[in-house]
Design brief:
Keywords: Membrane, Mitochondrion, Mitochondrion inner membrane, Transmembrane, Transmembrane helix
GO biological process, one term: cristae formation
Subunit structure: Component of the mitochondrial contact site and cristae organizing system (MICOS) complex.
GO cellular component, one term: MICOS complex
Number of helices: 3
Number of strands: 0
Radius of gyration: 26 Å
Protein name: MICOS complex subunit MIC13
Distance between the termini: 80 Å
Mean pLDDT: 77
Length: 108
């Protein structure tokens, strides 16, 4: 009878160590994914020169405004096609005109 209790206790320890290993791996994976997304965002900002002169930033913002809505529509169509779900048609996004050059250092 005593041997069974020892085996069960050791089995529990092995399961606990497996669970701990899995959780550590899961946390590490989440950290790597978040770090990759953050690194990609920093690279994109650097590559597009968004922190450079305001005319380049304004051109990049205008380009993003032209590219993002069609890309979102294509992605939603792809999801509908792959999953068979019907996504209701969303209203058009509002047109946002924010001249960066006019407000640059306006608070100083």
């Amino acid at each position: 009878m005593g041997g069974e209790c020892v085996l069960r206790a050791s089995d529990r320890r092995q399961e606990a160590s497996r669970d701990t290993w899995f959780l550590q791996g899961w946390k590490s994976g989440k950290f790597l994914i978040k770090g990759s997304v953050a690194g990609g965002a920093v690279y994109l900002v650097y590559d597009q020169e968004l922190l450079g002169p305001s005319d380049k930033s304004q051109a990049a913002l205008k380009k993003a405004g032209e590219v993002v809505p069609p890309a979102m529509y294509q992605f939603s169509q792809y999801v509908c096609q792959q999953t068979g779900l019907q996504i209701p048609q969303l209203p058009a996004p509002p047109k946002i005109h924010f001249p960066i050059r006019d407000s640059w250092n306006a608070g100083i």
